[in-house]
Amino acid sequence: MQCYTTTCSSSSRSRLGPLHKNRSNSTMKTTTAFFGGCRRLQTSVYASTVHDIVPTLHDVSPLKLYNTMTRKKETFVPLDDKNVTMYVCGVTVYDYSHIGHARAYVSFDVLYRYLRYLGYNVLYCRNFTDIDDKIIDRANAVGEDPLELSKRFAHEFHVDMDTLGCLRPSLEPLATNHISDMVDSISKIISHGHGYAVEGGDVFFDVASLPGYGKLSGRQIEDNRAGERVSVDGRKKNPEDFALWKSAKPGEPTWDSPWGPGRPGWHIECSAMIRSLLGETIDIHGGGSDLMFPHHENELAQARATSCCGGAHDQDYFARWWVHNGFVNVDSEKMSKSLGNFFTIRDVSESYHPLALRWFLIGTQYRQAINYTQRGLEEASDRLFYLYQTLFDAHTVLEGDTSPASSEAALLEEVLDALSDDLNTPLVLAAFSPALKTLNDLIHTKKGKKRPDRIPVMRDIVYSLDVSLGILGLRPTDFRQVLDELCAVALNRADLTEEDVQEAITQRAEARASKEYETADGVRKKLEARGIYIMDTPAGTTWKPGCPTAE
Q1: Average pLDDT, stretch 121-137?
Q2: What one-character DSSP code corresponds to residue 55?
Q3: Phi/psi at 236 (5° precision)
Q4: Do the beta carbons of residue 7 and residue 389 sit within 8 Å?
Q5: Which of 374, 387, 380, 385 is nearest to 348 (CA)?
Q6: Closest Cα partner for 425 from 159, 103, 168, 126?
Q7: 67-88 burial, b if ≥16 CB within 10 A, otherwise e?
């Protein structure tokens, strides 16, 4: 007796009929692992390629994305026909990544996957801030070289993103590899009258010199008070001016510049790297809503100030679409270390499968704030198990059947329409429910098994689900392995072992044999209160994970 799964040959995964061809050679497989918990688990090898149906584009609704700059959804048309440039602000690598990072990078991973699915060649760039005040402070606290510390946490970030099934971007530049680009941008900003050096070797951006500052965020200049990463300094012309270059301080890494040794300010790195790697104007610039001001506003200001052309004052200059994901709240409060409600991705992975976290995150439309709760993760885990078990069973039934899916994939059409509407992932997940019910009826009920169109209907639904899950980054290569992992982390959450559950099943069976039905029911309820559900099947009694109930 064990967690409920049925046996499926690996060959069934390749017998879905002609799913056409791979659209690129960028397939990447990543082995991942859980962290912590009562046992260390090796998670599945995730299928990170976009699933391999190639649609004709007239069958797909035009992609509409909300543009923060214009405050409305707009039909996405890239500058260069089939080529898309996308830049997403990366992490400052001084600690392990938290669920806010997970929310941002899962959101943009879905966008990246969908753009590729639509046939675009996407140049996706996400940076690492590997020199910053926070990095230096942490390095000093632990007695480590700042650049070595940032290198270590950049590796850990990759581990976390791989665990969540996020594709690696095309480019992942380190800020410290582009210091010369930043120095060049700062020099241009000064020469165009928008920056100034002060005594001591610091350089500031003159915010008041640039008309239109604040258009992206909708804030006035006076709102840009000294705050995050902007120190109060009497040498500034105005309090809202921000640092472009910081002069050298004892014990800090430094680089040479026309203004003396030092290091770049935070905001200049992204605008300089975009200009160097992607060009003056990109299609999509993304990041969390917390970056809209001051970071993205200042990026835009720097990009405009670097250029002296008239187009620099056009709203499409630098980035044609500004895309921002919503905040993460924890039990309806803003997540913060000071409130004690701060969770890293590894904290969550001690008790929940990373794909359950991914399912939970895309259950809210990317622009909306998401409320992180334990119950929400439990429900996501339960739903994911149901989905994968259904697909596992369906692949078993379809094994050996080589007939192709029909062209009438209604579910896939519904999914694509939802994704084209500003990545409406909650609507996608909702669309799965009736399809999964139909699939289960066809697999398990007498009526379903007798339907003359049973296999073609099953194949159409499985086809649509496989493709949809590939776009969402939720299509593992091995359903059985992930089902076993979901069972294992359910045991972790319940603080039980497989042996504990089997002993309870035996106790229940003995109580039922003795007609002690109240005792037997009590055993079942105690397990359900810990998220373990006993199942009586024709093959015997087994169990599956689910949402804990009140005893």
Answers
A1: 97
A2: -
A3: -70, 150
A4: no
A5: 374
A6: 103
A7: bbbeeeeeebebeeeeebbbbb
Note the pLDDT tens digit of each residue in 22-78.
333 333 333 333 222 222 233 333 233 333 344 444 478 999 999 999 999 999 999
Say if residue 154's pLDDT is above 70.
Answer: yes
- Report the predicted TM-score, pTM, of the whole model to 2 decimal places: 0.88
Residue 545 near residue 3, CB atoms below 8 Å? yes
Bridge partner list, 319: 282
Q: Alpha helix (H) ranges present in 47-142? A: 99-117, 133-142
Please state, in angstroms and rounded to a whole number, the distance separating the CA atoms of residues 368 and 371: 10
The contacts of residue 495 (CB under 8 Å, 6+ apart) are: 38, 530
The neighbour count for residue 438, using CB atoms within 10 Å, is: 15
Name 168's Cβ contacts closer than 8 Å, sequence gap at least 6. 28, 158, 161
- Cite the DSSP H helix spans in 215-330: 266-277, 297-306
Q: Is the CB of residue 49 less than 8 Å from the CB of residue 28?
A: yes
Decide if 431 contacts 418 (C-beta within 8 A).
yes
Query: Residue 315: which pLDDT band, with cuts at 50, 70 and 90?
Result: low
Rounded to whole angstroms, the Cα distance separating 549 from 491 reads 15
Burial class (CB in 10 A: 0-12, 13-18, 19+), 142: exposed
- State the SS3 of 133-196: HHHHHHHHHHCCCHHHHHHHHHHHHHHHHHHCCCCCCCECCEHHHHHHHHHHHHHHHHHCCCEE
Peptide bond into 294 cis (omega under 30): yes
Q: How far is residue 300's CA from residue 267's CA, in Å, rounded to a whole number?
A: 10
DSSP 326: P
Q: Calculate the alpha carbon distances from 49 to 21, 87, 417, 475 in Å.
A: 12, 20, 21, 9
Q: Output DSSP code: residue 51.
A: P
Positive or negative, the CA dihedral 453, 456, 462, 467 is: negative
Is the distance from CB of 405 to CB of 398 less than 8 angstroms?
no
**Mean pLDDT value across residues 178-183:** 98
3-state SS record for 487-539: HHHHHHHHCCCHHHHHHHHHHHHHHHHCCCHHHHHHHHHHHHCCCEEEEEECC
Which run of H or E residues covers position 386? helix 374-398
Spatial distance between the Cα atoms of 342 and 345, rounded to a whole number of angstroms: 10
102: left (phi over 0), alpha (psi -120 to 50) or beta: alpha
